[in-house]
Design goal:
This protein is of the alpha+beta class and 393 residues long. Among the domains are: 168 residues, no CATH class; 67 residues, no CATH class. It contains twelve helices and 14 strands. The strands form five sheets. It has a four-stranded antiparallel β-sheet, with no helix packed on it. It is flat, with a radius of gyration of 32 Å.
Length: 393
Amino acid sequence: MGLFDKIFHRPSAPSGDPQGFFKTFTAYTPIFTSWGGCIYESEVVRAAIHARATHISKLSMQICGTAKPKLQTRLKVGPNEFQTWGQFNYRLSTILDVQNTAFIVPVFDERMEVTGIYPLLPSMCEILQYEQEPWLRYTFQNGQKASVELRYCGIMTKFQYQDDFFGEDNRALNPTMDMITLQNQAIREAVKNSATFRFMARVNNFAKAGDLAKERERFNATNLSGEGGLLLFPNTYEEIKQIQSQPYTLDANQMQQIKERVCDYFGVNNDVLQNKAYGDAWSAFYEGAIEPYAIQLSDVLTRMLFSEREQAAGAMVMATANRLQYMTNKDKLDVSSQMADRGIFNRDTIREIWNLPPLPNGQGQAYTIRGEYWLLNADGTTTKKGDDLTSGT
């Protein structure tokens, strides 16, 4: 069974015509159409999208609760049999930035049980109604169509305004993209013209147009035959001048402004693009660009994979990141020592901050507390570390 069959092999899929479009508040026909503007072809835009997707791919996916243990076991390994969680999040983030709408669909086994999830890139998606239930019907670039119940799917959006389900397109970036395109063309033409020499001259003593044409052919054959060398002008040529071509290109400040407009649109900066962000700078980038994605993804996957009853019992999917890894070494050392002394972090947690693997056999799960600290127990008594006696507070 191929990937397409695993996802869209639905015994209950609509066999006939759907019963019209699913009615919404703002649009009678909810349709998502892939935007034709190829912003991903620009190196500046691609760098910004890549920077976000790279950091998002490092999110740690945690499955909480006891519901659906088989599915949880599979999801801990990866989202599906074809991708790792890092690959899944990278592609999903890229699709979301380019299209402002990203679709996640379930992967089914032969018994029609959900075994994973997969990110989709359709060219068009419609929400149709069939037997009083909304369905998502996907159309791909090869013309193939498939349908899945809306309740099984996840939709992530950005810039969602007019549509009840889908985000807006990136036409707001068109002026900036036009400037980038024109600047690249100007630079390319400037390089071409820099290797070209053009001259103009006034020719005397030619009364007939035919004589002037013959002189042009003679000059080309003598000087421009491909053999190279020195241009020779007879004394009938006057006012010989070189034509200077000066194509207009933006200066450094203008180019920086264009780059900053792209960075502002995608929520990154030069430090993030060049991997210079750490400490408070990276924390700000995390809170502004990565954390919103992590929260939305966690909510979407939790609603996709678990029922309301299972969610009420504590079943959920969480996308998290260890932000302490991006502190300076001095800050890491301070946090490690202070949190370990008070029994807040165990050894494995501290090792994770320093990008070290956990200790074998659970040795790193123990907590240590400095001897001068006292533990406040739940019943109001206190216990000194290493002391078997307790006393009231």
